[in-house]
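Predict structure. Chain length: 250.
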Amino acid sequence: MAIALAGLISAAATAARFALEGTLPPGYPFLTFFPAVIITSFLCGTAAGTLCAVLCGFAAWYWFIPPNGFALDRQSAFALAFYVFIVTVDIVLIHLMTRAMRRLEAEKRVSNALVEQQRTMFEELQHRVANNMAFVASLLNMSRRRLRADPAAAPAILDEARNRIETMARIHRRLHDPNQVDLPVGAYLRDLCTDVIEASGVSGVACEVDVPEMTFDIRKLTTLSMLVSEIITNSLKHAFPDGRAGRIAV
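Prediction complete.
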C-alpha cells in the first residue's frame, strides 16, 4: 500500500509539474517534487519516501532538467546533487521526527498505564484499609460484649483481641510481601502455618498442608489466611495441653 501510494504521489507531482510548464520561469525543475517527497515520507515512512524521491528525481532529470532525456552535464549534475541533498535532509528529518513521535506515544501509553495502575492500587488500598478497620471494630464489639458478660475475664479477652489483631497484621505483611506474589496456595499456607506456630512460642508441633496446586486472588487468600490462622491458633491452645507434641493437618 505504501509503495503504491508513493508511485501515485510521484505521478501526481509529475503531472503537476507538466501543468506548470510554461508558467514557471526556468530553473525550477523540482518545484512540485519536494512536497511530494515530504508528504510521502510523512504518511508512508522512510522507504516509501525514498522511493518517491527516486521516481521524482528520474522524472525531473528526464523531462525538466536541460538538456533532458537523462543527459548529464555539469549543470544537470549540480542540479541533481542539489536535489539529492535536499530530499535526503527532508527524509532524514521526517524519519527522526516520526521516530520521536512514536517514542513519545509509547512513553505516553506507559505513563497512562502507570497512572491507571496507581489509581487501581489506591482504590484497592482504600478497600483493604476499610475492611481492616471493620474487622478491628467487629473484634472490639465482640470483646465488649464478652466483657459485659464476664468482667473478671478482661485480661484474657484483651489478650485474645490483641493476638487476633497481631495475627491479622502478620497475614497482611505476608500477603503484601513481593516474594509471595503468585505463590501457590499450598506453599503460602505452609509458610503461614509455620509463622503462626513460631509466633505462638509452642514447640514440638508440626503443621502439614495438603492443598492442590492453585492460586487465589488476594481477597480470597486473605479470607482463607484468617480462617487457617484461627484454626491453627485454636489448635495450639486446646489440642496440645501440657506442652504435648503433635501434628496439625490442613
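Summary: The CA atoms of residues 83 and 150 lie 99 Å apart.
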